[in-house]
Design brief:
Aspartate Aminotransferase, domain 2; 14% strand; 4-stranded antiparallel beta sheet
Length: 355
């Protein structure tokens, strides 16, 4: 840290992204990326857009907003596309939180929430998950804070029923409730349709998971037009050209090829079910994930040992260090070939531990 660094940020603990090693023949199951390439239409649109990158991208993103709105069943003025869903989440902290409107979110959830709160000098409360890692609806009813709920949650993978989410929204009418649906396409039930019922609801989604565009950095928020206007104020005050032209074009192509996305999601769900059953046979406890990853621990082998031994076999998963979940690993669902290799490696690790 230099002597020039502002004291306002000297105690900031930054988010730690998943490791991105450049290792040949690595089975990479640590950052919840899709094993499938982007839609062919998305690739073609991005390639065409590359011919004109000497020009600024469209700051209004109107064609992209129209494509998203058509696919999810809202109006274009109820959508704001951003540089990944991280950006829309940060915008929400900036727009809807302050000293009078503190933030609240689970203690075990997306690691960027406390970072955004600290970065924007927003007081926040971390609400403990239940012993089974579920979100207790009662902990959020009428708390009078800006609420952030990852649903399904990460890293646990567990879904909070839509009816429970709606009760939380309805019980906090004077505060915005942000429902982060990064993983909703893998078995969750979206709350997007509720934006027409509740003016205090903002739903965020991403192209990184189900639409195979993690490297493109594209996400979006959905809410009533007034909320989107608020968020646009933040956008145009920070980075009007927040989405590059190729990503914007690819985003339109992906939305026009929804059948491709649905087919890939179905395959990942099928692979997830198979992998979960095989891991349970090996003595793992696995949460009921509705995401493109599994959250698992073994009944006799530590999470760190499993992570280390898998890495030695060129399989990379995500080990998490908080005390409560230190024996768990988060494992991305990849292709069936990757999952078979994982189970084979885990079988060897378990047999060695039992020998």
């Amino acid at each position: 840290m230099s002597r020039f660094f502002s004291s306002d940020y000297s105690s900031l603990v930054p988010y730690t992204p998943g490791e991105q090693p450049q290792i040949q023949n690595l089975i990479k199951l640590n950052t919840n990326e899709s094993p499938f390439p982007p839609s062919p239409k998305a690739q073609a649109y991005a390639k065409a857009a590359a011919e004109n990158v000497q020009l600024y991208s469209d700051p209004t993103a109107r064609p992209l907003h129209a494509a998203i709105a058509k696919t999810i069943g809202v109006s274009p003025d109820e959508v704001l596309a951003t540089n990944g869903s991280d950006e829309i989440l940060n915008f929400a902290f900036m727009a809807f939180c302050d000293k009078m409107h503190p933030a609240a979110f689970a203690d075990l959830t997306y690691g960027f929430y406390p970072v955004f709160a600290q970065l924007n000098d927003i007081p926040y409360t971390e609400i403990p998950l239940a012993e089974d890692f579920t979100i207790r609806k009662s902990d959020y009813l009428g708390i009078g804070k800006t609420i952030f709920i990852a649903n399904p949650n990460a890293p646990t993978g567990i879904l909070l029923p839509k009816k429970d989410v709606e009760e939380i929204i309805a019980s906090n009418p004077d505060n915005v409730v942000v429902v982060d649906e990064a993983y909703v396409d893998f078995g969750g039930e979206s709350c997007v349709d509720l934006i027409h019922k509740y003016e205090n609801l903002l739903v965020t989604q991403t192209y990184s998971k189900s639409r195979s565009m993690a490297g493109a950095r594209l996400g979006f928020g959905v809410g009533c037009a007034a909320l989107i206007t608020d968020l646009n104020t933040i956008k145009y005050s920070t980075n009007p050209y927040n989405i590059n032209a190729m990503t914007m074009a690819a985003g339109i192509g992906a939305m026009e090829d929804e059948a491709y996305t649905r087919e890939n999601c179905e395959t990942i769900i099928k692979n997830r079910t198979w992998t979960m059953k095989e891991m349970q046979k090996l003595g793992f406890y696995v949460t009921d994930s509705k995401t493109n990853f599994l959250f698992a621990k073994h009944n006799r082998i530590s999470g760190l040992d499993i992570y280390t031994k898998l890495r030695a076999k060129n399989i990379l998963v995500r080990h998490l260090s908080p005390e409560r979940i230190r024996d768990f690993n988060r494992i991305t669902i990849g292709s069936m070939e990757q999952m078979q290799a994982l189970i084979c490696a885990l079988g060897e690790i378990v047999r060695e531990a039992e020998a």
